[in-house]
Amino acid sequence: MDKAPTGIKGFDELLYGGIIRGNTVLLEGVPGAGKTTFGIEFIYHGITEFNEHGVIVTCEELPESIYRDALNFGWDLKALEKANKLRILCTSPEVLVDPDVNLIETVVREVGARRILVDSISHFQNVINNPLFLRKSVYSFCNGLRRLGLTAFLVKERVSDGTRDYAFEEYVVDAVIHLENRERPGLHRHRVLEITKTRGQEHIPGKQTFRITNEGIKVFPLIGSVDIGVVEHQENGLLHTGVPGLDELLQGGLPRGFSVAVAGSSGTGKTALGMQYLVKGAQNFGDKGLFLSLEETPQQLMANARRFDWDMSALQEQGQLRVLYMPLSKMEIDETIIKLGEMAKSFGARRLVIDSIYVFLSRIDNAAVLHEKFYSLVTYLNSLNCTTLLISPAWELADNGKIEVIHSVVQGTILLKSILSQNRRVRQLELYKMRGVNHAMGNHLLEINSSGIQVFPRLGG
User: Fold this and answer.
1) pLDDT tens digits, 189-204
2) Full set of structural domains in the chain with CATH
3) pTM of this prediction?
């Protein structure tokens, strides 16, 4: 099957290599979804990477505006025009639907184009009022592009991003890509794309996150990139936590390839436990560790570690530890999952801490979507033989339905508690859940001292 790669990072993976050459693709979405950028990038990469000359047809924007906007991504379209590899054609919808005018064919033959972007076919409705004639005109227009051997992207504007309805253009074209720019909890919107149709070829279904960067569009295909069915060489045995007293409760340690939620309110020692788990793992057992912080900066974490005489900077220099910082305001969940897995794999991490998974709870309202994303994260990390601690909010401080989703996916849950007893604050640890592990039950005293965390198993287990 002859395919035309788009060159858009992450997108061709969804199509197993690209669009069938000569097919017509509908790009639809609301304002700000990225339709024009997507289409121009398809043309640009076609010229610069695959030697396929292109044509951009616009019914609204002037060429100078397109040149300017493309330069923001480093795409010099004016230079490509001077090299006779690109034509930007500014025309009217009346000309495009007139069967007696061969403007596109003339331009295509002049530059030897193999790709075309039409922005947008929504303007056809401005000159054709009859629905039947409109459909016939769009059908004839698409067939004309096919006869010229063009792989075509046609932009279509959507008025509403609410209830999904299907326009006739979706039945006429060979493929449909739906772009969204959604509102979500917090200050930032969330861009999502979905391939809803690809005639004659297979594609990965589902909604995928994408971002518009200073280099163009980048898609994060969580389904496809995260191969949760493939397990790395499985390591057996137990992994010592490095926390005195905790391994005794676990009958030796955590099974390798486990994911464990560490839940508790502020001040119960969650982050300290996570740091100790990585530091002692590196110092005492030679395990490489990865700390993903979504809240505290690396400088703050290392300053806190020094209070326990843990030199995380030295461990980083020795190649035993890495601290990644992805501030909540800038991260996307799918992007984070993919990057974290790639980093763990390339670094050879055996221990991993994510602080905290509150981002999953705050960004995703739908429990089914939360389960799908979190399951992908946990299963992916388990398949890489990472034994992971996921710092979690206390149950009483989070949405019960969401927190239950989190704890149903992980293999273990450690609860850290802080109670007031005889006017004195007492910390406790409980192994609430540890799938397949014969562990001690009940609450056990936990202390944070100058050396870190220590657990004192209750007599009788």
Assistant:
1) 789 999 999 999 999 9
2) 3-225 (3.40.50.300), 238-456 (3.40.50.300)
3) 0.81
